[in-house]
Amino acid sequence: MGQRLSQRTFPSTGRTAVADGSSTKTAKRGERSEADLRNPVSRPLKVYAFDPSQGRALGNYMTVDLRYESLEPGPTGRYLQVIDYDASNKCYYRPVDLDDPAVLIRSGLDPTESDPQFHQQMVYAVASETIRRFEIALGRSISWSFSRWGRKDRTQPDRLRIFPHGMQEANAYYSRDLEALMFGYFPASLTDPGLNLPGQTIFTCLSHDIIAHETTHAWWIASVTSSWNRPTGMQRPFTRRSLISSPSFSISASRTRSCR
User: Fold this and answer.
1) Which of 53, 94, 163, 224 is deepest in the core (most CB within 10 A)?
2) 228: which DSSP letter?
């Protein structure tokens, strides 16, 4: 006679285990497929909610859940390419690989002022989340218009470039010529440093507000103004005429180039 094996069903997984350790899979409503597990929905990344001057105060560290996309070191994705060239010191900082398993399992690098790779993660995360919110509001994907402005190499995909350490000055801005966001760094005042130490290096690329602000400039100049009449979601009509006729329309392109 064959040995009779006991069975036990685990409701959370839909798998039936038998006494000899083997298991059989049963089809259950709501069960996640292997394809779902291979392709995550989101990528959690740690960022500053405000900026480093707030220290470890409650609420200054946060995790943003970005739409998942496969990334190249930089990081470089569908919309963004982070290029960490320090123009003042004439050097490149090693690009972060957010697809490295050791980084993935930690939800990204921990917030710190001293690691250029976290700076790269910060600008990518906040800019990506800002773009996602634009797309939700519009009801469609955004598109940059760099190739239509005469980019010489049209084989390269349209990506907004981000330079976390683009210059040594107290400024951050969108450069239409470079098709890039430029973030500066500078020493805090010796006489009025605010929440910083006198002479401490301040990085504009670590300010959540500044990154979102400059990404909005880039989106407005490099996307919206070149696609006024592209249809948005069915419940979100958006045309040049309807926008300009709005009483709240008072933006000036000459005032959307820098954030001092």
Assistant:
1) 163
2) T
Domains by residue range for the chain, with CATH: 39-229 (3.10.170)
Mean pLDDT in each 10-residue stretch from start to end of the chain (260 residues)?
50 48 53 64 93 82 92 94 92 95 94 94 96 87 67 67 94 89 89 78 94 89 57 49 40 37
What are the tokens at 138?
Answer: 């519009």
Q: Do residues 181 and 213 make contact, with C-beta atoms less than 8 angstroms apart?
A: no
Selection from 223, 52, 37 nearest residue 127 by Cα: 223
Q: Give the residue ranges of DSSP H helices in the chain.
A: 34-38, 101-104, 116-138, 208-222, 240-244
d(CA 259, CA 184): 11
Instruction: Report the distance separating Cα 184 and Cα 164, nearest Å.
Output: 7
CA distance linking residue 166 with residue 168, whole number of Å: 7
Q: Is 188 helix (H, G, I), strand (E, B) or coil?
A: coil
Closest CA to 131 of 107, 158, 104: 158
Question: Distance between CA atoms of 140 and 53, rounded to whole angstroms?
Answer: 36
> What is the dihedral sign for C-alpha 48, 49, 51, 55?
negative
Q: What tokens were used for 60? A: 């200054």
Is-contact 83 163, C-beta < 8 A?
Answer: yes
pTM (global) more than 0.90: no
First to last CA, the chain: 85
